[in-house]
Amino acid sequence: MIDLALIWAGIIALGVFIYVMLDGFDLGIGILFPFFPAETDRDVMMNTVAPVWDGNETWLVLGGAGLFAAFPVVYSAVLSALYLPLILMLVGLIFRGVAFEIRAKATRTRHLWDLAFIAGSVLATFCQGVALGAYIQGIQVVGREFAGGGFDWLSAFSLFTGFGLVLTYAVLGCGWLIIKTQGELQRKMFMLMTPLTGLMLAAIGVVSLWTPLIDPAVATRWFSLPNLLWFAPVPLAVLGCAWGIRRAVQKRNEHAPYFLALAIIALGYIGFLISIWPHLIPPAVTLWDAAAPESSLRFTLVGALIIIPVILAYTALAYWVFRGKVRHDDAGYH
Question: Is the dihedral of CA 145, 151, 155, 160 positive or negative?
Fold first, then answer.
């Protein structure tokens, strides 16, 4: 018998990862913006993502819609628990979206739209990280409803994960700009890539040690035998990817730094899924407890199997059409 709840959980998990993979680097460009005050550099940086940034956010919508359709209990409880950081995240995304549309046409107020782009990118990323940290530390549920307080999400751990995600997206943005730029701007990105990766690794290390301390079940899962032997390659693979980034930067390899950074994030994401499995609302509600009726799962799955290939197709087409380097005198991005 097909496990529809497991299939839907896999679709949502994949959608969230694709969102991080695609929108992570364009949020990262906004995070790096303050370190590049020259208008010509900023024009190129924005033009590297101007044709694709709104399509990237489709995956965030897909994840939310999938959660509502397949796991309405999770949708209700998680949104109630994380209401404020998620609203602030949307405010940040709106600020940067408006900046994308208006900045290129503004003259006297361009510096204000630069500020909106920076603040929106940092706020959206930080709030996503805070929501992730609050989700990992657990959400109080009684029966099938959220039973905690409006500020349960606010903790030292969740604030640190917000800071860690800002660093992570900055690394992705740096790697993307190495691929899409050339000359002096690319040289500066090569210089930034290694120290940013070091800071990201330090943040990942702190979160990896902190998480088992706040949840004994996670500590048992990772550090008991034989699990410890099975999971030991994960941190070793992360260190191997970091070493690869350093070597790629030294050799001026344009593509390896971004894809190796993406591999580190994928390994961290796998570690996150291992830690919470099989719960969709840690620490008590499993994906089978939270699933919608089977008839609903089957009906919505048909729609998902039609829509997802369409999204994949137009996403791939957009990246193919706008492939190659971006130069300051290029036209047609806005």
Answer: positive
